[in-house]
Amino acid sequence: MLRLLLAVLFGCLPVLAQLSSAVPCPIQRAAAKGENVWLLCDRQGVYVSPDEGKTWKARRAPTEAKLRAVAVLDARRGFVAGDGGTLLATSDAGATWEPVAVPVKDNLTSIYFVGDHGWIAGWTGAILHSKDGGKTWERQSSGILHALDDIFFADEKHGWAVGWAGTILRTTDGGATWEQVRVPNVMWSMSAVYFTDLNNGWITGFNGQILRSRDGGRTWEPVSSPVQSWLTSVVFDRSGRGWIAAENGLLTTEDGGSSWKILPVEGTVFLHQVLTSKEALWAVGNWGVLRQRPGERTLTPVTNLPAAAGGSRASGVDATD
Questions:
Q1: Inter-residue contact 266 to 258 (CB < 8 Å)
Q2: Which domain holds residue 162?
Q3: How far is it, in rounded angstroms, from Cα 223 to Cα 212?
Q4: How far apart are CA 155 and CA 97, in angstroms?
Q5: CATH number of the domain within which 243 lies
Q6: Separation CA 93–CA 87 (nearest Å)
Q7: Are 17 and 290 in contact (CB under 8 A)?
Q8: I need a surface site. Which of 46, 81, 123, 316 has the fewest CB within 10 A?
Q9: Closest C-alpha among 296, 291, 288, 295 to residue 268
Q10: For the segment 17-36, what is each residue's pLDDT rounded down to a tens digit?
C-alpha cells in the first residue's frame, strides 16, 4: 500500500493503495511527454497511451535484444534502446519500428531529449548525442569506462550522467566535454539523476544513497535516507514535491528534497521508476503500474493494459478505462 500519497500530491487526507500483480508483463522503464505515456515491457514490447492511461495500445519491438530504455518525443515519435547498441525508432506510436545506426555496441541504458537534441548513456562510459531528433548519433568522450545508468539534461547545454562505482559526470557545453565529479566517501553505484533547474539536483543509488547538489553538480552532499535499499529513480513536480522509487515502496519529500519519508507498498515489489506526466504521478515495476490523477484519493493500480506487448506478434489491441 501507499500511505499519504494524496496528502503529498494533492494536499488531501492519507489513503492506502495496493500494488496489483495483474499486469501482462513486468514493466522495466517508462517515459512521458505531456499526456503521452509509454511503458517498456521486459519482453521487447511497449504500451503506448496518448491520454495518460485512459486507453492503451500494445506494440511489439522487433528485436531479441534486452531493452533497457524508452523515450517519447510526442504522440507518435519515440525510441527504445538496449543491449548490443540496439536503438529502434518509431514515428507512428510503435506500430512500426526502424533500427537506428549508432557508433557503439555497448548496452544502452538511458535516453533523454531536449527538443531535437538527444543523449544516450550506456556501459563502458558510452555517451551518444543527436542534433536532429534522433536520426543520426555521434559518440561523445566521457573519459571513463564505468557503466552509466542514467543521463539527464536541464537544457541543451547542461547535463549530468551517473553510474557504477560512484560515477558522476557533468557538462555545460552539451556534452562536447564531460567532467568527472568526485565525492568523498561515495563508492556505491548511482542509478538516477534529476535536476529541477540549473543548480538544484539529486542523485539516488544503491544502499539508500541520496545526494544533493545546489551548484549545478559541481559539489554534492549526502542527504539522510530512511532506507538502505536500492533507490532506482527520482523525480520532482513543478511545485517542488519529489518522489524516489525504491525496492519496496516510494520515498517522498515535502521540503524540496531536504528530508525524505517512506511510502510503503504492500507485497513483493520492485519499483524501477517513478515519473510524472501532464497530470498524473506514475510508479512502475515488476509487479504492476500505479497511477494517481487529480481528484483521485490514492495512487491505484492500472488494470486496463491489453495483452502482453512482448508477445510473438505485433499487437494493436485497444484497452480503455
A1: no
A2: 5-320
A3: 7
A4: 28
A5: 2.130.10.10
A6: 15
A7: yes
A8: 316
A9: 288
A10: 444 445 788 899 999 999 99
